[in-house]
Amino acid sequence: MGQLLDGKQLANIRAEVLQKQVLTLKMAGIQPQFCVINIGNDPSSKIYLKTKKRRADQIGIKQKLFQLPSNVTQKNLLELIDRLNNDKSVNGIMIQLPVPKQIILNEALAAIDPNKDVDCLTPANVGRLWQGDHFVEPATAHGILALLDHYHISLKGKNAVIIGRSSIVGKPLAALMLERDATVSILHLKTKNLAEYTKRADILVSATGHPKLVKANMIKKNAVIIDVGISRFNGKTVGDVDFEQVAPIASFITPVPGGIGPLTVESLMEQVVQLTRRNNGKQ
Ligand code: NAD
C-alpha cells in the first residue's frame, strides 16, 4: 500500500509559518490584502470562496470579495481591475473562475497588474514562469511541488506525466517540473492512448475532473500518484484516480479530499504574502 501524501497536514504546517510572517509584516505596518472578483453565482465558486476566506482569516490576510452580477460588461470588469491595480492597499487580485460567456477572460487577465497577479495568469507572469525567473507561482502547482519536497520526492531525471492541460494546473505545473529537471509529458482529452504514457510515469499527476479515470493497469509499480481532480460521484467527493485499485501499487498517493485541495488554498495565501513583501520592498 502506497504511503499517503497528507496535503491537509502539510497545509496546516505551512499555514503556521505563514501566520508568523504575516505578523511580522503587520508589525511593520503592512497588511496583506487580496481581492477576489466573482462574477455570477456558480455554486462551486461559492464553496471555494468560503474556503479561501476561512484560510485567509486564520492566517491574518484580508480577503475582499467583489461580487459582480452575471450580466456585468467587459468594460465594467476592466474598470474594476484598473481601480484595484491603482489601490496601494491591494497586494493581490484574482478573478474567480468560471466567468460568464460575455467576458473575454484573457483580456481581463491581461489587465491585471502582474505585480498583483496572485494566480500567475497574466501573459507577463506566464512568460516569466516558462523563462524560469518568476516571482509568483500558480497555487495548485506550487502546492504539488511543496508536497513532493516535503516527502523528499525528487523530480530530477524522472518521467513526470500530467493528465490535463489547463492554464491553472497542467501547463504551469509542466513549466515548474521542467525547471526541476523532470522529463514532462502533458496528456489531454484528445490524447489517443493515455496508458501508453502513464505506464512510463515515475510521477503521475491527474487533473481532469473525470472520476476513476486512472486505473491500476495504467500505472507502473511504485509510481507517485498526485490526484488533483475534484468531482462528485455517488454523493461523495472523489478525485480522478481509482484509489482502491491504484493505492496498493503506488509508492506514494494523495487522498481526495485531504490532498492537493487544502494545499492549493494555502499556497494561494503564500502567493499573497510573497506579493505583499515584494510590493513593499521587503525582499
Ligand atoms: P479544465 O476543465 O480546465 O481542464 C481539464 C483538462 O483535463 C483538460 O485539459 C482536458 O483535456 C483534460 N481531460 C478531461 N477529461 C479527460 C480524459 N478523459 N482524458 C484525458 N484528459 C482529459 O479543468 P481544471 O480547472 O484544470 O481542473 C481539473 C480538475 O482539477 C477539476 O476536477 C477541478 O475541480 C480540479 N482542481 C482541483 C484543484 C485542487 O486544489 N485540488 C485545483 C484546481 C482544479
TrEMBL record:
<dbReference type="GO" id="GO:0000105">
    <property type="term" value="P:L-histidine biosynthetic process"/>
</dbReference>
<dbReference type="InterPro" id="IPR046346">
    <property type="entry name" value="Aminoacid_DH-like_N_sf"/>
</dbReference>
<keyword id="KW-0560">Oxidoreductase</keyword>
<dbReference type="GO" id="GO:0004477">
    <property type="term" value="F:methenyltetrahydrofolate cyclohydrolase activity"/>
</dbReference>
<dbReference type="GO" id="GO:0004488">
    <property type="term" value="F:methylenetetrahydrofolate dehydrogenase (NADP+) activity"/>
</dbReference>
<dbReference type="GO" id="GO:0035999">
    <property type="term" value="P:tetrahydrofolate interconversion"/>
</dbReference>
<keyword id="KW-0521">NADP</keyword>
<dbReference type="InterPro" id="IPR020630">
    <property type="entry name" value="THF_DH/CycHdrlase_cat_dom"/>
</dbReference>
<comment type="similarity">
    <text>Belongs to the tetrahydrofolate dehydrogenase/cyclohydrolase family.</text>
</comment>
<dbReference type="InterPro" id="IPR000672">
    <property type="entry name" value="THF_DH/CycHdrlase"/>
</dbReference>
<feature type="domain" description="Tetrahydrofolate dehydrogenase/cyclohydrolase NAD(P)-binding">
    <location>
        <begin position="138"/>
        <end position="278"/>
    </location>
</feature>
<feature type="binding site">
    <location>
        <begin position="164"/>
        <end position="166"/>
    </location>
    <ligand>
        <name>NADP(+)</name>
    </ligand>
</feature>
<comment type="pathway">
    <text>One-carbon metabolism; tetrahydrofolate interconversion.</text>
</comment>
<comment type="subunit">
    <text>Homodimer.</text>
</comment>
<dbReference type="GO" id="GO:0006164">
    <property type="term" value="P:purine nucleotide biosynthetic process"/>
</dbReference>
<keyword id="KW-0486">Methionine biosynthesis</keyword>
<keyword id="KW-0658">Purine biosynthesis</keyword>
<keyword id="KW-0378">Hydrolase</keyword>
<protein>
    <recommendedName>
        <fullName>Bifunctional protein FolD</fullName>
        <ecNumber>1.5.1.5</ecNumber>
        <ecNumber>3.5.4.9</ecNumber>
    </recommendedName>
</protein>
<keyword id="KW-0028">Amino-acid biosynthesis</keyword>
<dbReference type="InterPro" id="IPR036291">
    <property type="entry name" value="NAD(P)-bd_dom_sf"/>
</dbReference>
<feature type="binding site">
    <location>
        <position position="230"/>
    </location>
    <ligand>
        <name>NADP(+)</name>
    </ligand>
</feature>
<dbReference type="InterPro" id="IPR020631">
    <property type="entry name" value="THF_DH/CycHdrlase_NAD-bd_dom"/>
</dbReference>
<keyword id="KW-0511">Multifunctional enzyme</keyword>
<dbReference type="Pfam" id="PF00763">
    <property type="entry name" value="THF_DHG_CYH"/>
</dbReference>
<dbReference type="Pfam" id="PF02882">
    <property type="entry name" value="THF_DHG_CYH_C"/>
</dbReference>
<dbReference type="GO" id="GO:0009086">
    <property type="term" value="P:methionine biosynthetic process"/>
</dbReference>
<comment type="function">
    <text>Catalyzes the oxidation of 5,10-methylenetetrahydrofolate to 5,10-methenyltetrahydrofolate and then the hydrolysis of 5,10-methenyltetrahydrofolate to 10-formyltetrahydrofolate.</text>
</comment>
<keyword id="KW-0368">Histidine biosynthesis</keyword>
<keyword id="KW-0554">One-carbon metabolism</keyword>
<feature type="domain" description="Tetrahydrofolate dehydrogenase/cyclohydrolase catalytic">
    <location>
        <begin position="5"/>
        <end position="119"/>
    </location>
</feature>
<dbReference type="GO" id="GO:0005829">
    <property type="term" value="C:cytosol"/>
</dbReference>
